Amino acid sequence: MPRKINIGEIQIGDGCPTYVVSEVGINHNGQLDIAKDLILAAKKAGVDGVKFQKRTPELCVPVDQRDQKRDTPWGYITYLEYRRKVEFGIEEYREIDEFCKEVEIPWFVSVWDEPSVDFMEQFNPICYKIPSAAVTDLGLLRKLRGTNRPLILSTGMSTLDQIRNAVAQIDVDNMIITHATSTYPCIPEELNLKMISTLKETFHCPVGYSGHEVGLIPSVVAVALGACLVERHITLDRAMWGSDQAASVEPGGFERLVKYIRVTELSLGDGVKMVYDSELPSRNRLRRFAG
């Protein structure tokens, strides 16, 4: 039986309600007011937590991409300059921390490099997410294990052997693995939701799903297949500028997603066949023979 872990005050694992995460990521486009609007939308939808991303651009942008130019809301600038524009610093994260406490919603981040872990420790996060891009960053994995905080390991772009190697660097007793395909947006043929069962059978820990598809159905199906955590990107408008917006869910969609997940949880039952009291009138009216 896969073990359970706690993120903040909430227990996650088989038999527990699905932990639903709104991934703000960089969909705020470097604007704190948009970030706050996304937090409020997530709160209204009834999710369990919101997540951001923390990088050190100088470490995370490959050297051969730093000077590549692109059109952005700030003009035609280099990729490195763009990454700096969308990166929140200490003042913004202090405001996010205070705002989330004010509206009573937990928050945490994906950390992309070791200095970002040091940066986030001052906020005493409830957990850390390891992005799919960092599955092979053994130094970062070991540093995160040293925080003794719960870890959520995303597995996009990874082979099963790479996942095994990553798990060996961290504490499987305090970890959730999330199945993911790192295509934005991802076509149904490449979602491979049956990997949720494979990961549970392989690692015997709670397994979730980080979805990048268009629509809501696969994320709900993931719950029926055993995902204990579902993460989807949230956006105010899928037509907004930004690389993740098209694979994100708008506020009204997030409200429906949470509703569909809760209905799915109620519908799964326990697998034990029984005759419900609500069926008795139909049985008495329609069945001609006893036994």
Write up what this structure looks like.
The chain has 291 residues and is of the alpha/beta class. It has a single domain, classed as Alpha-Beta Barrel (TIM Barrel), CATH 3.20.20.70. Helix content is 37%, strand content 19%. The chain has eleven helices and twelve strands. The protein has helices at 32-45, 57-60, 79-85, 90-103, 114-121, 138-145, 160-169, 195-203, 217-224, 251-268, 280-286, and strands spanning 5-7, 10-12, 19-25, 49-54, 69-72, 75-78, 107-111, 128-130, 151-154, 175-179, 207-211, 229-233. The strands form three sheets. Strands 3-4-7-8-9-10-11-12 form an eight-stranded parallel barrel, surrounded by five helices. α1 packs parallel to α10. The longest helix is centred in the C-terminal third of the chain and has 18 residues, at 251-268. The protein starts with a strand and ends in a 5-residue tail after the last helix.
